[in-house]
Amino acid sequence: MPTPRAYHHGNLRQTLLNAAVQLAEEVGAEHLSLRELARRVGVAPSAPYRHFASRKALLTAVAEEATERLRIGMVTGAAAHRQQGLEQLQALGEAYLDWAEQHPMHFRVVSARDQIDYAAASGMAQRNQELRDLTLQALELAQQQGAAQRCDPQTLAVLARATVYGLARMQTDGHFAQWGLDPATGWQSARELLGVFVGLLRPATQKG
């Protein structure tokens, strides 16, 4: 177990957030303790409460930070394919999978709605709405270009998010092996399966 390290200066709030992610990776978000977090950082047990009223408030802040990282990745991915709807949708999905792979605890915390106060996280809600809008816009563009089936784009947007979330969840939770996929290459399999899903959105006349 890491030994406590003295905290001398700087941004305590951010230090606590970073340490919370590390601690949650060890014990699980549901078992995270503000007292243990203070010990790890090297501050008084009461210090974290100056920034976070509770464990749920701390995890909510972690989730907001995680969602911002996701937003940046997905916006960047979409920007590289502004003129191609389906390619943009693929890039959005790949950015989501990249985020879940590179930040597994962020993915778990964001997914654990019972551990955070989503209603109080206005920034998180705004970022999620932006990502929903990006997905919807990509699908509408693909339909305008004749590259995607003429189905309600809102329905397809929900299905697209469910697909990438489900793929990330299966890999993170170790379910791919049960379906004959090698967990060691699970993230690559997830990206390939995303490509299959995007391909299925094409009109029948475009499927080879």
Number of helical regions: 8
Corresponding CATH architecture of the largest domain: Orthogonal Bundle
Number-wise, the strands total 0
% residues in beta strands? under 5%
**Mean pLDDT across residues:** 91
Stretches where pLDDT falls below 50 for ≥5 residues?
none
Structural class: mainly alpha
Summarize the structure.
Residues 10-70 form the HTH tetR-type domain. The protein has 208 residues and is an all-alpha fold. The protein has 8 helices and no strands.
Walk me through what this model shows.
The termini are far apart. The chain is built from eight helices and no strands. The model has no long low-confidence stretch (mean pLDDT 91). With 208 residues, the chain is mostly helical. It has helices at residues 12-27, 34-41, 55-79, 85-102, 104-111, 122-144, 153-172, 186-200. Residues 10-70 form the HTH tetR-type domain. InterPro entries: Homeodomain-like_sf, HTH-type_TetR-like_transc_reg, HTH_TetR, MT1864/Rv1816-like_C, Tet_transcr_reg_TetR-rel_C_sf. Keywords: DNA-binding, Transcription, Transcription regulation.
Question: Topology, pairings included?
Answer:
Elements: H1 12-27, H2 34-41, H3 55-79, H4 85-102, H5 104-111, H6 122-144, H7 153-172, H8 186-200
Helix pairs in contact: 1-2, 1-3, 3-4, 3-5, 3-6, 4-5, 4-6, 4-7, 4-8, 6-7, 7-8
